[in-house]
Amino acid sequence: MKWKDGYDERNTMLNVKLSKTIGLYQILDPKSPRTFGYNVYHVIATVLLAYEMVVLSLSLTGIYYWISNLSYMAPQIGYSTNVLCTCYKIWLLIQHPGRLRSCIEVACIDFMATGRFGAALFRRTRAKTIRVTRAYVMMGFLILSMYIVTPLVFNDNYLLLKGPDGVRHQYHLSVFNVFFPVTSAAYNRFFMLFHVFEIVFGYVWVVYSHVFDLFVVTMCYAISCQLNTIGVVFATLGQKMADYRGECKTTITRVHNDRETTGCRGSTLCIKRNLFCP
Questions:
Q1: Which parts of the chain span the membrane according to its record (predicted)?
Q2: Owning domain of residue 246
Q3: Which of 67, 95, 114, 252 has its CA 20 to 30 A from that of 89?
């Protein structure tokens, strides 16, 4: 990583390669390319956020328009809720990149490992974080691919929806079946165009949801690693103190014998050895 001088990506809990692939690294990197003084990736995220909000408004309109179709409304409410959460995640990434970057910079081996055991625990936790985040992102894109391909495979499937006027309309099965203010005939005729709109909508949803979730999962594992390290230190605290006291008593006995042998009557020898017993 290049956020700090001498920052080794192997010593951070973040899956750096994955974060660069999906854009988290570029969004948080203060040295990313800029246009008109703004981070290019922030500008792109803002444009895509506006696109998501427009499609989301159409989806909410569809819920109202097709209110008499419960089988259609239920998934639309679920999609709308999740997309709304994703829009909030995008807003957080744009508004607070510095705070998020500081959290990731702290989640490194310098702040989380104490001794050999702490370093080994950090390595194991980092490996687990990389596996989990990689599997999570792959699963998300796999599900999105299934959503995209399904309407093309089942090309003859249509949704029969009842409008407010009581007339039933047939719409071609699509990715999310977002409501567009066009007639059913126009929708079916230009289905591929609307299908592309929904693919972009779903892609932005999945990518930016994973971008923020990657940060959250990383911080959860980092906190877990730090708490485990602290727990181990406290668990061995009494044992280390007992070992220290035993060593201290042995040293005092040896000093006492030396005093009797050399005839020392003062505390010079004790002071030179810097003896201290709790």
A1: 40-67, 133-154, 190-208, 214-237
A2: 240-272
A3: 67
Q: Stretch 20-40: mean pLDDT, rounded?
A: 85
* Per-residue pLDDT, 142: 92
Mean pLDDT of the chain: 77
Q: Tell me, what's the pLDDT at 239?
A: 57
Q: Which residue has the tokens 């929708």?
A: 187
Looking at the fold, whether 186 and 148 belong to one and the same domain comes out as yes
- Residue 4: pLDDT band (50, 70, 90) is low
Same domain, 253 and 173: no
CB 226 within 8 Å of CB 119: no
Q: Which residue has the higher pLDDT, 137 or 252?
A: 137
Cα–Cα distances (Å) from 247 to 188, 243, 251, 272, in that order, read: 85, 6, 6, 17
In a domain, 4, yes or no: no
Question: Do 90 and 186 have their domain in common?
Answer: yes
What pLDDT score was predicted for residue 102? 84
Q: How far is CA 87 from CA 205, 237, 246, in A?
A: 8, 47, 61
Distance (Å, whole) CA 80 – CA 44: 22
Whether residues 145 and 83 fall in one domain: yes
**Is residue 132 very low, low, confident or very high in pLDDT (cuts 50, 70, 90)?**
very high
